[in-house]
């Protein structure tokens, strides 16, 4: 079967909150100005190749369920060309500005690295043509360093240096292809960089290996003149018991330890944040507070399940809090919102891909509008500002400027200091948020 693959769907348009057409946006109106910037420029949404065009609906208990005609004979280059057609038809009809891929999503693995690289390069040539013709850009590329059995014990953190070398060679090629396609970022998810048991693991050595690997990537990026942003994507576990890039704070410490904190930023994923026991808002706030926010993988977990369910975002409260942090933090820069989200196994129809992305984009747009309302009314910011007033006063400045414990002791005794508790107003602030949410 060949294109069109989605012939029962036309271009998805914005039809407003009262629309009845399920194949239309109710809130995502890409040209609408929000706080002086187009909605599309705030969100920079991207569709991912892997969940939407590669995954056939397998799970550990059962076979493929999804209607994905382009996947027939999925190991061949011809099938990958069909997949490219399907993907670009979808990107255009949905009207998103970006997509993302792993090298192994777009082209088959060969019997040697040279053959694999050749497959990737040839598909990338076709891809460049489609990008040119449609105006759809690459938000980021990444190398799959976790599916092949050679990576079972990790890539950079593998006990075998030959595996490190193989992974380095694969990233070199994928980084160059991403550069050639004008990618805005390059992502490194440490798929199996972690351990299943400490009984066979040298933690110290593996951290140094990972630090060395990232330094090599930074060096090669400069060498080829790629001016996109390098991003590490934190995740606490799955597939390994413990992933080294556990959360934003752990990656921050790693980057500082290996002197990489000015060269690499973070790709924050919602469901990875919640797996780590954090909220999405927390991971964003941490990254922004430390100048590390790069991009976002948009999805959601299931509160009753402890794994990475990668469902499409649908909580407007969650997207509101996230966009409040992002917009106040200065925006996503070269980053965007990549839908690293997959359909449920029973959502077998091809057009379910549209319903999922329309819902996800509307949830982001509702979050953006709600965040803008919170920023406009200024209540949260004013409260936080006034809460720290004392730190702008004489005592606060003295403490930060170097008062010693003895100085502070003298101050408390001399002035009979006796601070009274002040309300943190949590419930009031939660209501401020709820009242701003655009449902
Ligand atoms: C896995 C995950 C990856 C990365 C890219 O949980 O999120 O798809 O986003 O390798
Ligand atoms: Co991801």
Written description of the protein model:
The protein has about 450 residues and is of the alpha/beta class. The chain folds into two domains: about 35-375, Divalent-metal-dependent TIM barrel enzymes (TIM Barrel), CATH 3.20.20; about 380-435, no CATH class. The chain has helices spanning about 40-45, 50-55, 75-95, 105, 115-135, 160-180, 205-225, 250-255, 270-275, 280-290, 315-330, 350-375, 380-385, 390, 395-400, 405-415, 425-435, and strands at about 15, 25, 35, 35-40, 45-50, 100, 135-140, 185-190, 195, 230-235, 240-245, 265-270, 295-300, 335-340. The strands form four sheets. It has an eight-stranded parallel β-barrel with strand order 5-6-7-8-10-12-13-14, surrounded by four helices. Helix 11 links the parallel strand 13 and strand 14. The two termini are about 40 Å apart. It binds D-xylulose and cobalt (II) ion.
